[in-house]
Amino acid sequence: MGDSLVKKIRAGSQRAVAQAISLVENQVDEGKALLGQLYDPQSKAYRIGLTGPPGAGKSTLAKNLATLWRDAGAKVGIISVDPTSPFTGGALLGDRLRMAQLFGDSKIFIRSMATRGATGGLAARSEDVSLVLEAAGFEVLILETVGVGQVELDIMNAVDTTVLVLVPESGDEVQLMKAGIIEIADIFVINKSDRPGSGKLKKAIEQLLELKNDQDDWNLPVVNTCATSGEGTAELFDCITRHQQYLEHSGTITGNRVERDKRHVKEIVNGEKMDAFWTPEKENLLDQQVGKMSPMELSRLLLEQD
Ligand SMILES: Nc1nc2c(ncn2[C@@H]2O[C@H](COP(=O)(O)OP(=O)(O)OP(=O)(O)O)[C@@H](O)[C@H]2O)c(=O)[nH]1
Ligand SMILES: [Mg+2]
After folding, report:
1. Is residue 8 included in any domain, yes or no?
2. What is the C-alpha to C-alpha distance for residues 78 and 98, in angstroms, rounded to an integer?
3. Which residue's alpha carbon is at the smallest distance from atom 17 of ligand 1?
4. Which residues are 226's β-sheet partners?
5. Does residue 2 fall inside a structural domain?
6. pLDDT at residue 3, rounded to an integer
7. How far apart are CA 178 and CA 149, in angstroms?
8. How far is the C-alpha of 268 from the C-alpha of 143, rounded, in Å?
9. pLDDT (tens digit, 9 = 90+) per residue, 95-129?
10. Using CA positions, which residue lies closest to atom 7 of ligand 1?
């Protein structure tokens, strides 16, 4: 069955892709084997990350952008990752309704992922899912995550272009600076620009970015959009394309991708090692001794069990 599934994925069957993604997400051996067979160093989809506060309009923007790429002839995958929800149900349903018009479109594939209890490895799994789509000939991948912490930082670290989506009300959220996400954003979007305050926020962000723009070759654009009407989508599309060209011309893209692949390998290895290490016996030992021994001594004791 493995071989024929690989063939069907390579042929671009959406059903086969969906089946493969489930195998990969569930981390069963079959999924792991499949990932090995599907990998092709030649096929590299361009990855775009959209992150930002809940409800900022990321899914609506992703849909708008995907449509533009599709119209330009590309196959586009949208992967929504929700690190805050243990269920795929809610996020999936909402996105499904909003993106209903895209379903049935053979050039756009949409998938939601949630934590399923453990946050660890979500970035690695979304990269695994990306690899499946790449093998199926998808040229553009849009990864959407709700901006709340480490997980979305990890995911955004693995894309080529990171877009931070804010709304006019994010004005005082310049504390976002502290979240580190501003550091890794390549393009800033102020969505819901049909609401008051978007011009003011644009100025404030541009001011914040002045210093960075003086130091870098890439001038960080700030784009006003209204995802529901589609206004600003073309400008955002243009910014992303320019950023892609910038990365390609400067050669940065190759190094970035090597780093991404290295991190991915490390995440897989770390995950497997950790799973193998934490046997019920060791968890027991930890429960019994915690607080009685120093963390250092207890760690040593645990490591010696191997
Ligand atoms: N007024 C206005 N509403 C918008 C705009 N863009 C999106 N919305 C609405 O905002 C709500 C949230 O949009 P989504 O695209 O689901 O936002 P999201 O960032 O993907 O949300 P989460 O994935 O839940 O974090 C929906 O009701 C959209 O119709 C906009 O530009 N203006
Ligand atoms: Mg969404």
Report:
1. no
2. 13
3. 57
4. 231
5. no
6. 73
7. 11
8. 20
9. 444 444 455 667 889 888 876 645 457 778 888 99
10. 57
Q: What is the pLDDT of residue 148?
A: 59
What is the Å distance from ligand 1's center to 228 Cα?
8
Do 276 and 141 lie in one domain? The reply is no
Q: Could you tell me the two tokens for 281?
A: 């016996």
- For the chain, state the CA radius of gyration: 21
Find the angle CA(217)-CA(160)-CA(103) to the nearest 5 degrees. 135
Instruction: Round to whole Å and give the CA distance between 220 and 161.
Output: 11
Same domain, 134 and 92: yes
Are 166 and 268 part of one and the same domain? no
C-alpha 49 to ligand 2 mean position (Å): 12
Q: Which domain holds residue 273?
A: 261-306
Provide the token pair at 257: 């991708």
Mean pLDDT (whole number) for 139-154: 82
Is any atom of ligand 1 closer than 6 Å to the C-beta of 164?
A: no
Mutate which of 50, 51, 59, 93 to test ligand 1's pocket (most atoms within 8 Å of Cβ)? 59
3-state secondary structure of 81: strand
Report the CATH number that the domain containing residue 108 is assigned in CATH. 3.40.50.300
Domain count, the chain: 2
73 and 118 share one domain: yes
Position 44 confidence tier, pLDDT thresholds 50, 70, 90? confident
Q: Are residues 267 and 130 in the same domain?
A: no
Tens digit of each residue's pLDDT (9 = 90 or more) over 174-233: 555 555 667 778 999 999 999 998 998 898 888 888 877 777 789 999 999 999 999 999
Q: Residue 293's beta-bridge partner residues?
A: 290
93 — pLDDT class (breaks 50, 70, 90): very low
Distance 198 CA to ligand 1 centre (A): 15
Using CA atoms, how far apart are residues 270 and 141, in angstroms rounded to an integer? 26
